[in-house]
Every structure is written in C-alpha cells, then in structure tokens.
Design goal:
alpha+beta; 4-stranded antiparallel beta sheet; 6 helices; flat; single chain; Ribosomal Protein S5, domain 2; about 30% strand
Amino acid sequence: MPRRRDDEEPWVPRTKLGELVQQGLITLDKIFQQNLVVKEQEIIDELLPQLQEDVITIRMVQQMTQSGQKSRFKAVVIVGAEGFLGVASAKSKEVGPAIRKAIGKAKLNVFPVLRGCGSRECGCGGTHTIPFRIEGKTGSVKIQLIPAPQGVGLACADTVKQVLRLAGIEDIWSKTFGDTRTSENLVKATINALKNAHKYAFNI
C-alpha cells in the first residue's frame, strides 16, 4: 500500500527511484553510495521518518519591479536526523509558505554526515564528533571544525550548534572568520565543511 502522509493523500511516486523506495527495494545508504539523485521529498520522508526541522532565519527581502517595490519573506531551514543533514532557502509572499518551500527543498539536499572520534585526547572510537579537522566557506565566512573529546559539548556559535545538533554531533571545537553575523552564510559554511569531509576522507 502507498505510504500516507499527514494529509492522508497517498504518495504516488513520479520517478523510478521513488518506486524502488516505496517497494522497499533500496535504502538511503545505497542511494548515496550509488550517487542517485533524489527528486521527490517523499523519498526522504519514507527513509528518514525521524527527520527534524529547524528554522535558521526568516527575513523580509525587497525587490524593485516596474510596478513598484515588492516585498517577500525569505526562510532558511535545516533538516536533519542522526548522521544526515540538509539546508535550503525559499521565498514567498507569506512566512508559512516560505518555510514549507524551504523544508521541501532541504529534504532534496540531504546528505550523509561523516562522524567519528578524531580527538587525540579521547580516542574512544565512537561517533560523538568528527573524524578529523575540516574547513568550509561561504561568501566571506570561513569555519574550521575540530574534533573534541567526549564531554566538551558544542563549543561554537549558537547558529552552528543548531546545525551540528541535527547532524547528531555532540562534541566539537570551532574557529570562525569573516562576517559571522550573517547567519545564513555561517550555516552554509558549516554545511560546506561537513560536505568537504567526504573529499578529505576520499583522499586519505
């Protein structure tokens, strides 16, 4: 039977991947291992039912058009569960639709987060932090994420904490550079760092 969403409407897959997920023939790990493109947010709803959402910022943006000044709301949202994370932004005339659009887009951007215990002071072999130091950058904002031993907690800016908590990371040190007052760029720089971990791991 097709999975029913909150609005009780059955999910009818529009892609081959969606059909495989609905039939239980493929897992999320296999999707990422084979570099398959997720084009339906219901795929993530099905495979990551524990996914949580967090709104980073909501702000009004204005644009000049031929008919005058046009105001819209821009929402930046992150979604995540243990070891998975996604971020996106969206605009709309109203706050609610902007958030819902951003959530849908963030689900399509979900990627696996490398976790481990790269702290020399700890070496427990767990997954409470990251396996090695990583860096990320967006705009003028640059961030370094450094493995920390158990018990340190998230020693970083509140906005970065929001991202790391959803990813299931419990302990970390960080260094930031640039205009870190821009929450959106700080979040995207953190996401960029977590994505870069896969490149570093591949080169090791």
